Each structure stands twice: as structure tokens, then as C-alpha cells.
């Protein structure tokens, strides 16, 4: 019995360094549509609130940032037109994928289909 416990403890001890190697690459946020400020150009900055009482955070966007509506990638200007007339934007959410290592927004997407 003691032998099994020693082997189990040894295996767990060997697994600890592997667990320490896990790092978060990206963080995704669900933001109210009325609490996001989109960039004017494909290369610029986007600002959003992680929660309604949080301050705005500003992050970089670039030409590689994906702007998606209902699963379809669009250029930034078409994306902005698609969300322009959303009724009750405080009730609609938009998702933002922030790549932590490069500190830039990788993807912004929204579903506008009927609920």
C-alpha cells in the first residue's frame, strides 16, 4: 500500500512542472453593444468595457483583425453599417477576442439573428 502511495506522489510531483507551463493566450469578453467604441479605420484602436461599471479599455486593432456578423467576415466599414441600426443596443452583446501576448484585438463578432 505504501509503495502505491509513494509512486502516486512521485507521479504527481513530476506532473507539477508541466502544469506550470499552461499560459493564457487570449481572453474573450462579452460586451454590451452600447459599451464599445469601434475604430474609424482598420488600423487603430477599439475601446470597450468588460463590465458595466468597469472603465473603458483601449486595445489595438490591425488589418488582420476579423470583423464578423452572423458568422460572416466583413470589412470594418460594412461591420459598422451592419450594427448601426440595432434596436436597444444595451440589450445586445458583442464578443471581443483579445490576444494577450501581442496586446491586440484579434476578432470582434456579433449575432444579429432574431432571438
Write up this protein:
- This protein has helices at 2-20, 76-84; strands at residues 26-32, 36-37, 44-49, 56-61, 66-69, 72-74, 93-99, 104-110.
- It is α+β, with helices and mostly antiparallel strands and 115 residues long.
- A hairpin with a 4-residue loop joins strand 7 and strand 8.
Strand order, sheet with most strands: 1-7-8-5-6
Question: Mind describing the biggest β-sheet?
Answer: 5 strands, mixed
| Strand residues, percent | 35-45%
> If you average the pLDDT, what whole number results?
87
Helix content: 10-25%
Distance between the termini: 58 Å
Structural class by sheet pairing and helices: alpha+beta
* Uncertain spans: none
Total DSSP E strands: 8
Order of helices and strands: HEEEEEEHEE
The number of distinct helices, counting runs of at least 4 residues, comes to: 2
Shape: elongated
User: What does the radius of gyration come to?
Assistant: 21 Å
Amino acid at each position: 500500500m505504501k509503495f502505491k502511495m509513494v509512486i502516486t506522489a512521485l507521479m504527481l510531483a513530476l506532473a507539477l512542472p508541466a502544469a506550470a507551463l499552461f499560459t493564457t493566450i487570449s481572453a474573450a469578453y462579452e460586451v454590451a453593444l452600447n459599451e464599445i467604441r469601434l475604430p474609424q479605420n482598420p488600423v487603430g484602436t477599439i475601446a470597450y468595457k468588460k463590465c458595466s461599471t468597469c472603465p473603458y479599455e483601449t486595445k489595438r486593432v490591425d488589418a488582420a483583425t476579423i470583423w464578423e456578423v452572423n458568422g460572416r467576415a466583413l470589412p470594418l466599414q460594412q461591420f459598422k453599417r451592419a450594427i448601426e441600426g440595432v434596436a436597444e443596443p444595451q440589450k445586445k452583446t458583442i464578443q471581443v477576442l483579445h490576444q494577450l501576448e501581442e496586446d491586440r484585438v484579434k476578432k470582434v463578432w456579433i449575432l444579429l439573428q432574431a432571438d
